[in-house]
């Protein structure tokens, strides 16, 4: 007998919506792939101004970042907010030579894992989180999001 699939209530808010932003259906698919328990998630797609304000106000860092995660509660179900800054996501995908869809998938999965308590504050935790991200992303049919970084490590020894 297999474990029951987690239940997900996903609200997607488009404060900024370029044509290239994935659909709610895609975000839902990615969230379910990363989810280990029932959850209520609000995803907000923002521009650089709002992304910068949120990063400054909540993390003390005065720049727009790709993804912010705000876990609010974890009992009896996981509840939280994830913010994706569309212009930053698009810029990074171009700079890193990744498809935009794959980069959105990776960053949203990254945020979902943060909601579930994963972090990358030290090397061991980062290695665990990155391995899980890679497993989920590749299972969904996207390339390893850390492939380029791993290749550079191998070259540099």
Please provide a brief summary of the model.
With 157 residues, the chain is α/β, with parallel strands linked by helices.
What this model shows, in words?
The protein is α/β, with parallel strands linked by helices and 157 residues long. The protein has a single domain (8-156), classed as Metalloproteases ("zincins"), catalytic domain (Collagenase (Catalytic Domain), 3-Layer(aba) Sandwich), CATH 3.40.390.30. The chain is 49% helix and 19% strand. It contains 6 helices and 4 strands, in the order βαβαββαααα. It has helices at 24-34, 48-59, 86-96, 100-115, 123-139, 147-156; strands at residues 8-14, 39-46, 67-73, 78-85. Helix 1 (24-34) links the parallel strand 1 (8-14) and strand 2 (39-46). The longest helix is centred in the last third of the chain and has 17 residues, at 123-139. Pfam families: YbeY (PF02130). Single strand-specific metallo-endoribonuclease involved in late-stage 70S ribosome quality control and in maturation of the 3' terminus of the 16S rRNA.
Report the span from N to C terminus: 45 Å
Number of self-contained structural domains = 1
Low-confidence stretches: none
Number of strands: 4
Give average pLDDT, whole number: 93
Placed side by side, the strands forming the largest sheet appear as 1-2-4-3
Question: What is the 3D form?
Answer: globular
What is the CATH level 1 assignment? Alpha Beta
